Amino acid sequence: MNYSQYENYGFEKFSAFNLSTGHAGRSYQAHWHSYGEILLVGPGETNVFQINRDTYQLTEGDFLLIWPMEMHAIIDADRKESLVIQFSNAFINSLFDLRRIMHFYRNMHVLCINAHLELVSQLRVIADSMKEIYFSAEPDRELRCCMLLMEFMLTLDRHRDEFAPEMQGAAPSYNDSVLHRMILVTDYIKNNLTADNLSQGAMAEMAGISKEYFSRIFRSVTGMNYSKWLNLIRLEKATELLADKEKTMTEVAMLSGFQSISSFNRVFHAEKGMPPGEYRALRMEQ
Predict the structure, then answer these.
(1) How many CB atoms lie within 10 A of CB 250?
(2) C-beta of residue 34 within 8 angstroms of C-beta of residue 86
(3) How much is the pTM?
């Protein structure tokens, strides 16, 4: 899909989590962004949404799942009482299990209350808790909301058997033991970004499987290749380090595991849409 004709919307704040409600207008133009959205549909006879080329007519209490980088629009819907939960793609990518869940449900966009009453009711309780905490203005509200977001995803994943046969076709071709070893490897990477050798071959050896099998499992679970994922994890570390204005760009790049300042600048701009210096300046204004 060519995204160039659409506007790219980003977070207003540098945050892993956002929540909003009370929007007056009943429509919103087609757009896309790098973060994901979970929309809890409000009341009214008309609630029409579009994701990519599909149009959905929903009812109050349904959930709409909009994954990162998906084109979507609100055609005509109650926005005053609907709830919009936004989550950073970097946050999802930083947790191997969350990435696995998101990739499994990538082609599913609607959770109807009439078809999945028990599941949607459980998710509604979690969403309402997010709303209460987010608007409480407590200093730890982002952390608590992210914990609830993880509970939301895990609750969804526990009900995977309810969904259509085509979803079941996405069942993994690996066992729990292999997945556990993959998680241990990804945890090692996150804690050792400056290690001498984080190549795919070295990580496959650490997991005790062949490089080819490692590559296949990694793409199956995350929806991306190992190199792409590693760069995203390094960028997550870099954005954290950029908050420390005492660190030079070279220090940020090296501590994030990039081999050169040029590769750091190139990858950062490709993913964030701006050079790291501009990102730091914007962050300092917050």
Answers:
(1) 12
(2) no
(3) 0.69
Q: How far is CA 279 from CA 4, 240, 274, in A?
A: 22, 11, 7
Residue 86 bridge partners (DSSP): 18, 37
Structure tokens at 251: 């220090």
- CATH code of 7-168, in short, is 2.60.120.280
Structure-block tokens of residue 18: 């956002």
Where does CATH 2.60.120.280 sit in the chain? 7-168
What span, in angstroms and rounded, lies between the C-alpha atoms of 139 and 66?
28
Question: Is the per-residue pLDDT at 198 higher than 90?
Answer: yes
Q: Are 99 and 92 in contact (CB under 8 A)?
A: yes
Outline which parts of the chain fall under CATH 1.10.10.60. Answer: 176-285
- Contacts (Cβ under 8 Å, ≥6 apart) of 146: 16, 17, 87, 91
Distances (CA, A) of 77 to 20, 22, 49, 87, 257: 15, 12, 8, 22, 45
- Give the residue with greater pLDDT, 282 vs 56: 56
CATH of domain 176-285: 1.10.10.60
